[in-house]
Amino acid sequence: MAGRAASRGGRPLLGGGGGGAGKRGGRPSTAIVAALLLACAALLLLLALGALSLPGTFEGAGRGAGLARPRPRFRRSTFESGLKTRGEKGEPWTEVLSWEPRAFVYHNFLSKEECEHLIALATPHMRKSTVVDSATGGSKDSRVRTSSGMFLRRGQDKIIRTIEKRIADYTFVPVEHGEGLQVLHYEVGQKYEPHFDYFHDDFNTKNGGQRIATVLMYLSDVEEGGETVFPSAVVNSSSSPFYNELSECAKKGISVKPKMGDALLFWSMKPDGSLDPTSLHGEILISRYDL
After folding, report:
1. Distance (Å, whole) CA 40 – CA 34
2. E strand intervals along the chain
3. 89: helix, coil or strand?
4. Which of 101, 127, 232, 245 has the greatest number of C-beta atoms within 10 Å?
5. Comparing C-alpha atoms, which of 247, 264, 268, 149 is closest to residue 198?
6. Are 183 and 119 in contact (CB under 8 A)?
């Protein structure tokens, strides 16, 4: 669009000048200006499409034979504005986990201080986790989910508001369209069998709409087990560089190993608005904590 606007702004120059001598003298300079404008427009288009990058856009050059990882193409200033609240932690970057389902890991999404704050708020109020009753839309006990958990109020304090804003910026889903944060705790031997996050009942879809996406934020490290697994993902999990570190159950489909501060975003609905059956996911049994 910048190139087109410039060429329109340059048109009066072609009609300028009085006599024939003025026109002949103006043609070479007009052609040069037009060529420069076209070159600028082509350069801007290449930059916008990502086919061309400015110096310093890539990092990690020379690490093996693979391509260097580009810096995240997100609105970095939005996240950097919360650094004082987050505390110092590794540089955030996004890893594409899968396209079926659409799943991404945002590394270093939370600081250690933020993780500890959420744990401290939730610990006194933990209760046995429940599942949605598809017949009534209410909650019920189930052996498929053995964790404990609780919900925090939306905007409960400054740190939670900062985290909620960061989630909204990352997902491009407004804060007011999200649920309150739910904090879950898994003891050794606890699990959540594969399930869908989207609703199967009319009650919840009529009263709050369908769940389109989920962000899981890991508040602690786990030495063995505890992965989030997508057993129906269309991907070759053995190609993962961390394949040998996964538990046996987590080697089916694709999995994410818990790491304090990381966040997993996955979409339960496809871009066309239909439900995505490949978003089936579960929490693997925790074998051992990293204490």
Report:
1. 10
2. 58-59, 69-70, 93-99, 102-107, 127-128, 131-132, 139-140, 148-151, 182-185, 192-195, 213-217, 222-225, 228-230, 254-256, 263-267, 281-283, 286-289
3. coil
4. 101
5. 268
6. yes
Strand partners of residue 151: 182
Q: For residues 109 and 89, what is the distance between their CA atoms, to the nearest angstrom?
A: 9
Are the beta carbons of 264 and 282 closer than 8 angstroms?
A: no
First-to-last C-alpha distance (Å) of the chain: 56
Q: Which residue has the tokens 């804060």?
A: 175
What distances in angstroms separate CA 126 from CA 151, 161, 173, 183, one per listed residue? 9, 21, 28, 8
Q: What is the pLDDT along the chain (291 residues), one digit of tens a residue?
A: 333 333 333 332 223 333 344 344 445 567 787 778 887 777 777 666 655 544 444 343 333 333 333 333 333 333 443 444 444 567 899 999 999 999 999 999 999 999 999 999 999 999 998 887 777 777 888 888 888 999 999 999 999 999 999 999 999 999 999 999 999 999 888 888 889 999 887 777 777 788 999 999 999 998 888 889 999 998 766 556 666 666 666 667 888 989 999 999 999 999 999 999 999 999 876 765 443
100, 233 Cβ separation under 8 angstroms? yes
Helix residue spans in 50-110 (DSSP H)? 76-80, 83-86
184, two tokens: 């879950």
DSSP 162-205: HHHHHHHHHHT--GGGSPPPEEEE--TT--EEEE-SS--SHHHH
Q: Is the pTM of this model over 0.85?
A: no
Q: Are 173 and 274 in contact (CB under 8 A)?
A: no
